[in-house]
């Protein structure tokens, strides 16, 4: 199971607000909720699942601003693909919290 930190930045929006794009991207994740787990944060979205599935969902997310007329999109992706033991968003947080 991999965990991905993703930020999608539509470039050339009519206003400085991007919440409309974020909301539509979250709809893509909701549509794929049987395939991935996800969590929206104030600065990005974290998604968890099998790596090939994540790449498919990431492409769907990346396409959203284009469907809304944006001509350029920058997407930042950071992948944590741990294969020596099972990992999840919850387990990573629990590990840190247990040390506090």
From TrEMBL:
Location of the region described as Disordered in the Swiss-Prot/TrEMBL record: 81-100
Annotated InterPro entries: MTH1187/YkoF-like (IPR029756), Thiamine_BP (IPR002767), UPF0045_domain (IPR051614)
Pfam families: Thiamine_BP
UniProt feature, compositional bias: Basic and acidic residues: 81-93
Residues of the Thiamine-binding protein domain: 4-97
Gene3D superfamilies: 3.30.70.930
Origin: domain of life: Bacteria
Family the UniProt entry places it in: Belongs to the UPF0045 family.
Protein name as annotated: MTH1187 family thiamine-binding protein
């Amino acid at each position: 199971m991999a965990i991905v930190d993703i930020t999608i930045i539509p470039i050339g929006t009519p206003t400085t607000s991007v919440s409309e794009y974020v909301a539509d991207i979250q709809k893509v994740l909701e549509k794929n909720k049987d395939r991935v787990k996800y969590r929206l944060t104030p600065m990005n979205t974290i998604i968890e699942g099998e790596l090939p599935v994540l790449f498919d969902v990431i492409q769907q997310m990346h396409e959203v601003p284009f469907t809304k007329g944006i001509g350029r999109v920058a997407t930042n992706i950071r992948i944590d693909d741990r294969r020596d033991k099972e990992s999840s968003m919850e387990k990573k947080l629990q590990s840190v919290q247990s040390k506090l």
